[in-house]
Amino acid sequence: MVRVVAMFLWTLLLFVRGHKAIVRPPQPPPEGADAFSWVFLVPALNEEVTIADSVQRLIELPVARRRVIVIDDGCDDRTAEILAGIEHPDLFVLHRKAPDARQGKAAALNYAYRALRGHTERDDTIVVIVDANGRLRGSAPHFAASHFADPKVGGMQSLVRIYNRQHPLTWLQDVEFSVYGHLFQAGRDHWGTAGMGGNGQFNRLSALDDVANEEGPWPVLVRSTARQLSERGDWAKTEREPISGGGSPATPTASPAAAAAAAPRAPSEESSAGRAPAPARG
After folding, report:
1. Nearest alpha carbon to residue 280 among 204, 184, 163, 190
2. Is-contact 166 250, C-beta < 8 A?
3. pLDDT score of 75 more than 50
4. Looking at beta carbons, which pairs linking 51-56 to residues 24 or more positions away fall under 8 Å?
5. pLDDT of residue 153
6. Contact, 281 vs 154, CB < 8 A?
7. Is the pLDDT higher at 50 or at 246?
8. Ranges of each domain in the chain
9. Lowest-pLDDT range, 80-89, 183-192, 223-232?
10. Does an H or E element contain 109, and which?
11. Could you tell me the sign of the dihedral formed by the alpha carbons of 97, 100, 102, 108, in that order?
């Protein structure tokens, strides 16, 4: 009985703190979202159905400085063709080929991170992960800017919702994501922590630098695999295949050198193919 009461009180505390974090966000800088440069990373593997719409939504976000970087992770459908037909100065496409392609979301994101090594103003650049079937709400950069105005904030996680929630199963999944976001993400906002998920993740580029190794900031595990050997037709040597590690393949490695994580909610929506944020320190 004591445990039940304790859990109820703990949940109530998280609810109250989460509500305050949502309705009373910090004040944004005078320039709003335009105080920062925004880099949107979109990993794509055979996304011909959604990629054009996703890129267009990111291009239309109300920010002055942006890069939309799509990582073509070995697509063999019309994704590359569709991207080639989109002419916009803010769109950049990185093509990964076998055997490096299709080795996990973390590997694709690290590839894009390495492409940013020459990028300057790293303290004022925010890297955002958006799934190819995800939808980032237009107000999300402005909301995020209010938190990144604090130089101690290294990252934040958006609230993930399901946009085709008219059906019973997707509605239940949306409820699950919503409860997790409002309680266990927003509820710990004032403690300076956030669970960085694989979609809707915002990171200051300099904070990613603090936790990155030679490959990048997102951890990749390695294991031997017979499947990849058979695909290459080479059984004479041992190959090692990177796979995404942790509960979420896009959770940066924690490090004491990293800047503090902060407010875990920015408005965002994701398709039913998405995943809930995995608890990890950003």
Report:
1. 184
2. no
3. yes
4. 51/79, 51/82, 51/83, 51/132, 52/82, 52/86, 54/130, 54/132, 54/133, 54/134, 54/135, 55/83, 55/86, 55/91, 56/86
5. 92
6. no
7. 50
8. 2-261
9. 223-232
10. helix 105-114
11. negative
Q: Which two tokens stand for residue 109?
A: 């994101």
In whole angstroms, give the CA distance from residue 203 to residue 148.
9
Inter-CA distances, 159 with 10, 72, 76, 143, 205, Å: 21, 26, 32, 12, 21
**Is a pLDDT exceeding 60 seen at residue 22?**
yes
* C-alpha–C-alpha distance, residues 164 and 73, integer Å: 26
State how far the Cα of 120 lies from the Cα of 174, in Å rounded to an integer. 38
**What does the pLDDT read at residue 3?**
83
Give pLDDT tens digits for 37-51.
999 999 999 999 999
Return the pLDDT at 175.
Answer: 74
CB 79 within 8 A of CB 51: yes
Tokens of 189: 């906002």
Sign of the Cα pseudo-torsion (208, 213, 214, 220, in order): negative
Helix (H) or strand (E) holding 45: none
> Hey, what CATH topology would domain 2-261 get?
Spore Coat Polysaccharide Biosynthesis Protein SpsA; Chain A (3.90.550)
d(CA 90, CA 74): 22
The pLDDT value given to residue 222: 56
Task: Output the pLDDT for position 28.
Answer: 77
